[in-house]
Amino acid sequence: MNKMQYIPVFIEAAKAGGKIVREYFGKNISVIEKTTAADLRTKADLESEGAILPILEKAFPEFNIFSEERGHTDKGSEYTIYVDPLDGTNNFFLGIPNFTVLISLLYGKECIAGLIYHPMTDLACYAEKGMGAFANGLQIHVNSENDSGKAAICFTAGYDNSARLVGPMMTALKKELNHKRTLFSWSGAADACLVACGKAEALINDGNEIFDYAANKLIVREAGGKITDPEGKVLTDDTQKTFLMSNGTDLHEKILTAWRTVK
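-> structure tokens emitted (263 positions)
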């Protein structure tokens, strides 16, 4: 296998940010509301970003960088690094240890390198295009589960539509698949790792920002998964924010059928 070009730096940067997030976890820190009461920023977000960006800028000085808190630094490059220094701030603030640091590299609209780092477990899931997907150095694959009754299906949505969709989505999935469980964890990246590692069968992503899902798509794709829009068209545009990722079995179409009744 060829040596990964971007991931070693991404891991270094994510662990630098994750160390700060981990140190703040469980402490009483103030929050700032951004777009809604559910869209939060904390000191941990800002300091994590402050640790991550210098590492990326030093390693890739010619690339654009778009970070959730700082915004867009445009170098006129076809390459853009996207950074979410703390994905799952609500969970972090509430004391729920389910949040991640996300870094992805897009060439145009295609993600070519992506990393999801879990600060509380020190688990890094990552991929570069054409090189497979890995978790802490071990190659990972989606599972081949095709039995609806054994399926765990994850769901995540943007702030503007999550409250409206959660109940109807859970009802529709249960009616169509009678599956084992629907997971709504407020951490879509953590859920994507479950799919890529073969622990869950699918993730519906309805909305969110590119920081939250670009790396997820590449990692699941490189783990052997399938990603389509709600109509079943296979996606190659990694900026598209509404999609289903799955293990690629017959469950995929059943989930799409249920989803269409909600949309």
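The first helix runs from residue 7 to 24.
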